[in-house]
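[job 4417] fold queue: 2 targets
>>> target A
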Amino acid sequence: MPEIKSADEVLLKIAAVGVCGSDIHYYKDGRIGSQIVKYPFAVGHEGAAIVEKVGSGVSRVAPGALVAIEPAMSCGQCDQCGGGRPHTCRKLRFLGCPGQAEGCLSEYIVMPQECCFSVKEKKMTAEQAALSEPLAIGLYAAKKALPLKGANIAILGCGPIGLSVMLCARLMGAAKIFVTDLIPERLQIAVKNGADWSGNPGKQNIVDEIVLQKPLLLDAVFECCGEQSAVDQAIDLIKPGGKLILVGIPETERISMVIDKIRRKEISVLNVRRQCECLHSTLTLMKGGMLNADFMITHRFKFEQTQKAFELVAGYSDGVVKAMIEFAK
């Protein structure tokens, strides 16, 4: 049982944890780039919990409250935090990140109060609160591509992050949204929930088919699967002056780009690093009914079935989009 050691800390009893692609990288490969797991290590960062106990200085939440967990713990004092970039804090600690902090895939964890967002007044479920974390990444990514009103975009990769981008881009006024994925079930879900066109790059030339519909090409493309082939497709799809937003985490150490193409079209290449203080805004949009991602949860597992859940997601089996780990109440 973890213990509260500082006045501003909160003891949380975990209620639900979403399985993320980065968790699977650590599970399968033991690393993401320079972040290498030293076992034993608990992963997990998409969490919702019940407040069990609070430190003497906590005023933000009270025992019994259901909270969405902000997984990033920033120092608040470095140049990055001062410059509005707490997500690249020099002393950042992130749940489930090797060398930083154990994850929330545990029965109890301790977090600083500023990472606990009460959702009681929002009448949200634990699952919805856990979904707010990937949705916040989608919101941050969509903001990177502004203005989106009237824009034609593509999202390459329709996992939870790609679908989160899709929902947020639609909310911000995107005119036409093209999506691609290798998993048919994900394409069906995307079209049912906001995409205008879907294609499978394993079965068709998605670049040719999109260009037939939009010969002047696209304003922005979100690469959400971390694949070299998707980066290549994105560059061919983006119009001069457009934006390439890299959201997916590649399994390889390097990706490459044809410099002649991105230089001649003056494509802006933007990286997305998690969610940069977008969790509160995401929860507000969810409360107002403007962001509903319940459809993403395709599979549910009990805590003791965690390995089964990870194997399912790692194998992209059974049309899985988001697997949710549920804890005993």
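>>> target B
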Amino acid sequence: MRTELERWISEQRSDDVAIAELRRIATGNSRANWFVALTDGSRHVVRVEQGGVFGTSSEDEFHFMRAAGELGCPVATVRWLEPTGAVLGHPFFVMDYVDGASSGRDDRSLSPELAQHLVSRLDALHRTTGAAALAPDVTPETATHAQIDRWHAVYRSASDGVVPLLEEGATWLHVRCPPTDWIGIVHGDPGPGNFIHDGSDVVAFTDWEFSHVGDPMEDWVYLVSMRGARTMAPAEWVALFRDVAGIDLSEDDLVYWRVFNYFKGACANLTCRQAFATANPAPNMAIIGTALHQTFVREMARLIGDHDGAK
């Protein structure tokens, strides 16, 4: 890997440069992140796909991060893209390394001050001026429906057959899709472990593979019920959103977007089973593609059943 990467980076820079340090720094399921220090002192992160996991691509993530950066969003500067897999066996891109005081990506604890700044930064991301230009064909009326169809297509392409509960889930989400007056940048996986901070404030959001233009409610409820669930209770998150960003989450909002996020997760997780059988035979791929997929399907179905049964 070192020789091939060194040669490729030199070609992108149009000069001869050597790698002084190369080490893996994160063990995410969709991407492998490698720290690279070059002999001229520059430091980068090489973000490598792991078998097309989660139905996302390095190319899409690279271009979205570049566009978000140009709009002033807190994101690492992206440098070069290798979309073919010819160099390292998988597509990858290179971005600048961002210094921070973040602890391990599995540590979901946050100080009260940092939690407030996270909510403020996420709200600012959603309200980024010019975000609509990143997806000119998306409107408030079509944004959520487009995401439902996106994840439905991911599941169907990764599955040998039909999963009836996912079909029902897609229909339920389309029928009950809440109206929204505005759309913005949705991170898609926000919360502890997916941002870099300096000890008190967010320096940059990371892991942009799920990002898109859509209804920001997707992010708020994802933070409450998934990535931030081990950080504080849902009621505490909801109160923080209201106090810091003026965001009010109703019970209907919480139910709908929890169903959406479990549907999205169940669809995305099926790609891990496909990856395990082909390009990435790691045990975690098999677990995510079977047990975790089934857990998400069950939670989605339970939420729908409880909600409709109470009506």
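[job 4417] complete. Note on B: The chain has two domains: 2-96, 112-309.
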